[in-house]
Description:
By secondary structure, the chain is an alpha+beta fold.
Amino acid sequence: MSKPLNIPIWKTAPIIRLLIPFIIGILLQWYLQVPLLLIIIFTAVFSIAFFIFSFLSLAQKFKLQFLQGLLLQLLLLNVGMLVTWNKDIRHQHNWYGNFYKESDFLIATINEPLVEKTKSYKADATVKQLIRNDTAIAVEGKLLLYFSKDSTIPELVYGDNILISKKLVAIKNSGNPGAFNYQRYAAFQQTFHNVYLKPGDWVKLEGKNVHPFKAFLFSARENILGALQTNITAGKDELGIAEALLIGYTNDLDKDLVQAYSNTGVVHIIAISGMHLGLIYGILLWLFARIPLVKRSKATQAILILGCLWLFSLLTGGSASVIRSAVMFTFITLGSMFFKQASIYSSLAASAFVMLLINPYYLWDVGFQLSYLAVVGIVAFQKPIYNCFYIKNKYADMLWKAAALTTAAQILTFPVCIYYFHQFPVLFLFTNLIAVPLSTVVLYAAIFLVACSWIPVVGLYTGKLTGWLLTLMNKIILWVNELPFAVWDKIPSNIFTTWLLYAMVICFAGWLMNKNKSMMQWGLAFCAGFVLLHTSIAWQVKSQQKFIVYNVPQYQAIDFIEGNNYRFVGDSILLIDGLLQNFHLKPGRIALQLNKKVESLSACFDKNGFYQFGNKKIAVLDETAHFESGKTVNVDYIILSKNPQLDIAQLTKTFNCNKFIFDASNSLWKIEKWKQDCDKLNLPYHSVPEQGAFVTDL
Length: 698
């Protein structure tokens, strides 16, 4: 019996070969910032060369088909670069950043309802005009607004126009090691500045700029939230989960509860994604395949399925993630309905191509990456995993099928999750087998609740049922999260280890599924590389000595690091407040593989705010600092913290300092004064709030 013919994916789904160079072009343009003229020249050259092939004889085309394919790949690469260049609003001549000066006024339109934060109200806005010397200049561009919290809430709604008289601030990263690259994230949203507005910094203008469709989405969103808030009375946590599960509204979510969902591997439940549309997609496929008048017509099935999918997408508020999933399932539906032996990989690649053509910056979106990786994992591995065991019992077989699907989705997503979140939910299979079916029931109940909330009795009892189910789900998740082995946390990872991990997974999967010995050999080789890289990093970590002045607004935070141990000097609230610690300090400690907090280090000695760490002398001066004048002390660094009543000239009489460091606990106006003094005296300095965290090796 002859072996079955294994046709490579890139031949059954040729659009993948078009997608790859397009993605490479996006990456090249973002990281290299190739000039537009050069892109146009290369695009024209490759287009002309490709067009010339149409005039060649059949024999010549056959001989040069490799060259023709290469030209097509290069052309698509340039298209990716061109699309990425064009999407960057900084290249548009009327972007406000090309004109803006500190003395200018801006007229901006509020793009969304205000969102309440801990200390402010946040909103996105679009700049419409720049006012300079009574002259209005038509401009465009997005701006992030923060309104101060005072005795009154800003009476602003979507579409309002405001006049801004406050200086804009460029969005910057904290500079803390391992921290989230917020500056890049905002750039992908085409937002490069923000501004904090107090009551005297802005004025509401007459008139509105309202888009009818966006207004409809915001109105529908408010109506859905109103229905949920009126009928789900089980508790704030239950209401927050219901809002996130149904329409992706996360403002009412408890941060500790979200962390519990993340630790147990079911955070995807409360993030509108492909899973939600996948659940509905599966039900719709099953339903319409059994309705007599519908199942005979593929076109009717496709129209009904897509109509329901997009209706749900609009009901959830039309967020980018759910629209992306809707596009993906649209291609899957059209591919399976109208093409014989349609490849699911072709549908996935086509949907990704369209989404990246619309917005190339989706490529860096974690949700975009995870949604496609999960679907590819399910398509590639769910059936082989399921076929490993034959179970006769119907219900046990259904359970095993769900387990196979969950495991398959995890295979290609866990390296990315480790890279971004540095943790692995050990009990993901157990929690998903319980939480996914339960959340599915909750999702359908919430949809029914919103649809029937106008009937008081139905809304009341459906709300009680939904609240009870949410309470049950939350209790299960919190119970699992309390187990000591529920999550493997603080896993170090970088881009190189992630790619090696993917290479291992793909090679070992190819070996197990296709019995390919060479794939096993390659897998072992990548595994050896993975181990060697981690060993090398661990060896470097053992010998590291450095200190870090973190950028934590309004707080003092310093780490003295020796090997895997660290000594913390700073505000005690950072040891208690989990949110502050996790956001500002934990990423750096994971990246540097710091495992243990200690009270003392062998290379670190201190007395009254003066530290001898290795060969460096460091003085930490705050409002309590006391030192003797008239005696010059040599120090390498002086860290000014907590707004001390000191000036630089006074310090130079006592200290011979190599560099001054102004941490984030100081007021910006005081830092500005210190900077001016340093400039006059030609002294080096580092402003943590402006330049990011100060990190140095000893």
